Amino acid sequence: MYTCKVMDGGLGPKFEIVTDTDLDVPIVSTSIDSRHSMLLSLINRCLGMEIVNTKGRGADFFGISHPTIHHLIQASPGVRKCKGYVWTKFEVNPSYEYTPDDEASLSYTALLRSISFSKSHMDPGIKAEPPSGEYHEDHTAALRSLLMS
């Protein structure tokens, strides 16, 4: 588990990813897309293969592009003082239903599926689906150590 934070960085925001196992070692950047891209590159390097596209989609990964979060940001006091903020007009859509992105760069479940799929094409003896929603311990430990590095 990890937490994504957007913090005050002085002249602009600071984006942080921190694991629940090592709170003292956050991954920090002033660019949301480059922070996400660096994380994806680390995942690929840890796995030893190109599993995820490393083009950063930081706003989606941090949840900032979600309509509810976007609306809450605009409703926050002082948002009009933010230089460069692009105001968005919202229309209420009661039938809107959020569906999580099923891309490996944004979803842990999709990442596990991509890893399993890639491994199964390298070695036919490996199953295409992770057992009962959980992936092998060595991959989980590798990803955990990746986020802590």
Rg over C-alpha atoms, rounded to the nearest angstrom: 18 Å
In CATH terms, what is the architecture? 2-Layer Sandwich
Q: What is the tally of beta strands?
A: 3
Question: Which percent band covers the strand fraction?
Answer: 5-15%
| pLDDT < 50 runs, ≥5 residues | 125-137
End-to-end gap: 15 Å
Query: Any idea how many domains?
Result: 1
Major sheet description: 3 strands, antiparallel
What string, H for helix and E for strand, traces the elements in order?
EEEHHHHH
pLDDT averaged residue by residue: 75
The outline comes out as globular
CATH class label: Alpha Beta
Helical proportion?
25-40%
The number of helical runs is: 5
The largest beta-sheet arranges its strands as 1-2-3
Oligomeric form: single chain
- CATH names the topology as Double Stranded RNA Binding Domain
Entry keywords:
single chain, 149 residues, alpha+beta, Double Stranded RNA Binding Domain, three-stranded antiparallel β-sheet, 5 helices, 3 strands
Structural notes for this entry:
The chain is α+β, with helices and mostly antiparallel strands and 149 residues long. The protein has a single domain, classed as 2-Layer Sandwich (Double Stranded RNA Binding Domain), CATH 3.30.160. Strands 1-2-3 form a three-stranded antiparallel β-sheet. The longest helix is centred in the first third of the chain and has 16 residues. The two termini are 15 Å apart. About 9% of the residues have low confidence.
